[in-house]
Structure formats: structure tokens, C-alpha cells
């Protein structure tokens, strides 16, 4: 088991739990030296390394080994799982895995930060409809 830092659609515990195949509860965390951007034509974001950047997200602890296979398939080939160090709300550091956008696809990134509140208001229902298949990921 290991920890997973999420910064987009998987910040929603219902989506993360569905993708992983069991219930998960996240806590707030920050990832330094990365920026988060909208992906062209999508409701989800991507992160890329960026000096001085900082991304707010959710950390899920003790993710089961079988869930990582499901997460890898859900994220697809545009993302690469990478080890990072995040900082929790109490200031303590924590090592975790996250999904970083591959350089080959960075031309799909839009300027500015992805807006989680707008995703919850407008994009989540659309995202769930479009990516209904994530519920069918094999366990």
C-alpha cells in the first residue's frame, strides 16, 4: 500500500472510490514545484513540473495494491505515475504517487489554473457521463 496525491477529478471521493473499487477518504495536501492546467476539450486537469508552482489537492492514504492497476488504466497513456513529496495541512511532509502529464502531450494544456469549484458546479456531471467506463474497470 502507498499514498496517492490527486489534484483533479479524483479529488472527489466518490469518483476516487469508484475508480479504486472501494471507499476512500482524502485529506488536504499541497504539492510544490508543479502547476495544474486545464486539458483542451476536457473537464479534467493535468500537472507539469514548474519551478515555484504549487498545486492544492487531496491525499489518499494506504491505497491498496490492486487499486493502483485500476488507477493506471483510468489515467491512461497521457499520464505517468511519479513519486512526489506533498505537505499536509499540519505542515508535515508525506511521500506519495501522483499522475504527471507526459511531455509529449503538453501541447494539449491550456493556460491558467484548472478550477476545482467550476468542475464541481459544471464539469463533474459532464465528466461522469463522458467517462462512465471508469466504473467498469476490472478489479
Describe it for me?
By secondary structure, the chain is of the alpha+beta class. The protein has one domain (2-112): Gamma-glutamyl cyclotransferase-like (Hypothetical upf0131 protein ytfp), CATH 3.10.490. 24% of the residues lie in helices and 40% in strands. The chain contains three helices and five strands, in the order βαββαββα. A five-stranded antiparallel beta sheet has the order 1-3-2-4-5. A hairpin with a 6-residue loop joins strand 2 and strand 3 (45-63). The protein is globular.
The major sheet is characterized as: 5 strands, antiparallel
Order of helices and strands: EHEEHEEH
Helix percentage: 10-25%
Arithmetic mean pLDDT: 93
Distance between the termini: 16 Å
| The CATH C-level class name | Alpha Beta
Radius of gyration: 14 Å
Strand order of the largest sheet: 1-3-2-4-5
Number of domains: 1
Specify the number of helices: 3
User: What do we call the CATH topology?
Assistant: Hypothetical upf0131 protein ytfp
Class from secondary-structure proportions? alpha+beta
Overall 3D shape: globular
CATH architecture title: Roll
Q: What is the tally of beta strands?
A: 5
Tell me the strand percentage band.
35-45%
CATH superfamily membership: Gamma-glutamyl cyclotransferase-like
Unreliably modeled segments? none
